[in-house]
Fold:
Amino acid sequence: MEIERPAMAGTLESSDCQVTVEPGDGRIDFTLESAVINQYGNQIRKVVFETLSHLGVDNIKISMVDKGALDCTIKARVEAAVSRSMDQFVNALWGGAFE
Amino acid sequence: MINLVKKRLRRTMMFLNAQKPGLIKDPYIYRPDSIILDLEDAVAENQKDAARFSLYHALKEIDYRGCERVVRINGLDTPYWQEDIRCAVAGGCDAIRIPKVECPKDVHRVEEEILKAEKDFGMPEGMILIMAAIESARGVMKALDICEASDRLFGIALSGGDYTKDLQTRITGTGIELMGARQNLIIAARAAKVQCFDTVYTNLDDMEGFQRDVETIHLMGFDGKSIVNPRQIPIVHDIFTPSGKDIIFAEKVVREIEEKKEMGIGVFTVDGKMIDIAFYDGARRTIELAKASGVYKGDL
Structure:
C-alpha cells in the first residue's frame, strides 16, 4: 500500500497524538516527540510499526507528537492518517487493511 | 438469536465524543450504566473518518468494566451511517443509537445493515441491539410503530433539541415544551414493553433545575436519562435507585400479597395503606430495580 500524499490525523490535546504521514523514500522513517519518550518511546514505536505492517505500508515518512496517547489511540491516528493519504474513507476492513 | 440484555439497567446514558481520546479512555470511573460513543453531532464534518478509527480501537481495546457501549451513528440522510455501523459492529459495540427516527422503516434499514455487518465480521447474529432517538413531531406521532419495529430495539429516547426546533419552540428548562412528547413516548414504550429515556439537560450551571427535571421524568415512568457530564450521574442514580424505605415497603407488599392470597384475602393494609393485587407488579419492580442497582440485600 502506497502513501499518495501528505496527510495528518489527531490533535495536540491531552491523551491524543498527532500523526503526520507523507510518501517515503523506500523505508519507514519514523520520528517521535513525546514527554514520555524515555519511558514509553519503544512501546510507541512498536505500536506504530505493527500498525503500519498491518496496513501493508513499508514506504512512509511518519512523525508523531504524542500527548500521552493510549495504544488504541496511536493505532487509530496512524490508520486515519494513512487512510487520508489515500482518500480512503469507506470500506475499511476494520481489523484488516483497506480495500 | 436475540440478545437477552434488552432490559438491563439504564438509568444514565452518557454521551461521549468518539473522536476525543481524553473522553473515551476511562468514562467507567464515573459509573454510568451506559456510554453513548457519538459519531454524529459531536464530531465535526471533517473528522468523521478519524472518529471511526478512534471508535473502533476504543471498542476493541478499552475495558469499559460493565458499562454498556452504545454507538450513536450519523443520520440516515447522510453518507456516513452505513460505514458507521460496519465500524461499530466490527468493534463489538453492544447497541446502535439511531438519530432522527421518524418511522419503522428507519429502524428496518439500520437492522438490515447491522445484520450484514454481523455476517461480514463473523459476529453472532442478533446480539447488537438498537435504540431509536425521536427528534421530531412526526417521530413522536409514530412512536408506538417505531417501538414495535424490531426485536433488537430495546428502547426509545427523546432528543429535545431537534424536537423543540421542529415544534417551533425552545428548551426553557421548565419542561413545558417537552410535556406532550414525554407523555407520548413513555406511553408508547410501555405499550410495546420497551424502555424509554429522556433527553439531555445541557445547563450544567443549574444542578437544581437538573434535579427537578430528573424527579419529573422519574415520576412519569422513564427508565433513565441521557446525560452530558459525569456530575449529573450521581443525581440521576440517587433518584432512580429505590430508597431503603421503598425497598422494605415493597418487600412487605410482596410477602403479604403472597401470604394473603393463600388465605383467600384480597384487600388488606400494609403500614396503614390499603393494598391489593394491583400493587404486586409495582412492588416486584421496585425489588428488581433495587437488585439491578446493587442495593438489595434481601431474599425475594
Q: What stands out?
A: Chain A has one domain: 7-85. Chain A touches chain B through 24 residues (CB under 8 Å). The beta strands of chain A are 7-9, 17-23, 28-34, 60-66.
